[in-house]
């Protein structure tokens, strides 16, 4: 059962609006919950990666002669764009910083935070277009050759797996010659001696697999797929690297922050697992409670693996 051909199940979760996003954020009940999760994730991850890829720095230094445009696709609560705005405020305030997301409440939140910056813009955008034959592709309402640097982080929940090639095509179209694309995606979530965490993870990944968001029913398997998509795209992949974040007990603030994020994710993924009949509500809730208790044990060990891809649009 693939999401691309299973709109009825998705509408049970999401309603009639915004059918591209598999986590039910367009519905009024979960919008605030997802915004809370995205904001926590933003504040946690943004300082743990370099603000800018080294490949973009030469363009930044020439920005006063050639004003630059930076785009964040699926920007969530805008943490990355706002961090750049603060960093650029003194010497590079003329650089245009723009963020786009499907979550209306998150965009309203971003716009409020950005009101004191003249060079920052946030706008609502559904990047997924359904074609007449019912297939889907990424369509970005952004001009050709208009951006110098595009940033995408943890977008897989919003991306039918069939849409990744069209996302790269659209990014290539939008970037100026020599422009930089940077994608950061989840590689894995590892737990030591925590069977209930593995069990709940399998349930969630099975639902995401049925929803057409992952490349394996046991994990996202997105990283190997991205290597292939880059090979098949016009981009030149110039750098990729893995990063692991230790969120074991006693490692703070990593432990408490990642655990809170996982708690919120458990709640937001619950409707998906039930709609696809992967498990029952009672079983899911019981395992979720046991998982959180296991995370609080003194000997809990966990690591969050992410992979960063940097590519150039050599036109």
Brief sketch in words of this structure:
By secondary structure, the protein is an alpha/beta fold. Helices cover 40% and strands 23% of the residues. Helix 6 links the parallel strand 6 and strand 7 (175-192).
Properties at a glance:
single chain; 10 helices; alpha/beta; 315 residues
Q: What would your notes on this structure say?
A:
The chain is of the alpha/beta class. It has a single domain (3-313), classed as Vaccinia Virus protein VP39 (Rossmann fold, 3-Layer(aba) Sandwich). The protein has helices at residues 7-14, 28-45, 57-61, 79-88, 104-113, 164-174, 195-210, 222-232, 254-275, 281-295, and strands at 69-73, 96-101, 120-124, 128-130, 136-138, 147-153, 175-192, 236-246, 301-313. The strands form 2 sheets. The chain has a 7-stranded mixed β-sheet, sandwiched between helices. The chain has a two-stranded antiparallel ribbon with strand order 4-5. The longest helix is centred in the C-terminal third of the chain and has 22 residues, at 254-275. The chain is globular. The model is unreliable at 1-20 and 24-29 (pLDDT under 50).
């Amino acid at each position: 059962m693939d999401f691309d051909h299973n709109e009825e199940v998705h509408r049970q979760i999401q309603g009639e609006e915004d059918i591209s996003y598999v986590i039910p954020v367009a519905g009024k009940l979960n919008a605030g919950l997802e915004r809370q999760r995205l904001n926590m994730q933003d504040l946690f991850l943004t300082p743990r990666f370099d603000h800018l890829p080294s490949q973009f720095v030469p363009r930044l230094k020439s920005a006063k002669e050639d004003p630059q445009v930076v785009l964040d696709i699926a920007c969530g609560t805008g943490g990355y764009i706002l961090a750049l705005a603060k960093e650029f405020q003194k010497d590079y305030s003329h650089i245009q910083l723009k963020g786009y997301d499907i979550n209306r409440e998150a965009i309203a939140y971003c716009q409020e935070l950005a009101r004191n910056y003249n060079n920052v813009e946030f706008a609502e955008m559904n990047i997924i277009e359904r074609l007449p034959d019912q297939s889907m592709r990424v369509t970005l309402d952004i001009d050709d050759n208009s951006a110098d640097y595009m940033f995408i982080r943890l977008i897989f929940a919003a991306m039918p797996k069939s849409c990744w090639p069209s996302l790269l095509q659209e990014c290539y179209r939008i970037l100026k010659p020599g422009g930089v694309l940077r994608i950061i995606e989840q590689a894995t979530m590892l737990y030591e001696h925590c069977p209930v965490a593995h069990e709940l993870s399998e349930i969630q990944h099975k639902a995401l697999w049925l929803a057409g968001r992952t490349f394996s029913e046991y994990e996202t398997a997105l990283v190997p797929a991205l290597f292939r998509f880059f090979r098949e795209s016009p981009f030149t992949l110039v750098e990729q690297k893995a990063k692991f974040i230790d969120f074991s007990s006693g490692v703070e603030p990593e432990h408490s922050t990642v655990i809170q994020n996982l708690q919120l994710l458990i709640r937001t993924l619950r409707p998906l697992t039930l709609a696809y009949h992967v498990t029952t509500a009672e079983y899911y809730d019981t395992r979720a409670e046991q998982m959180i208790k296991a995370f609080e044990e003194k000997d809990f060990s966990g690591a969050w693996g992410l992979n960063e891809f940097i590519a150039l649009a050599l036109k």
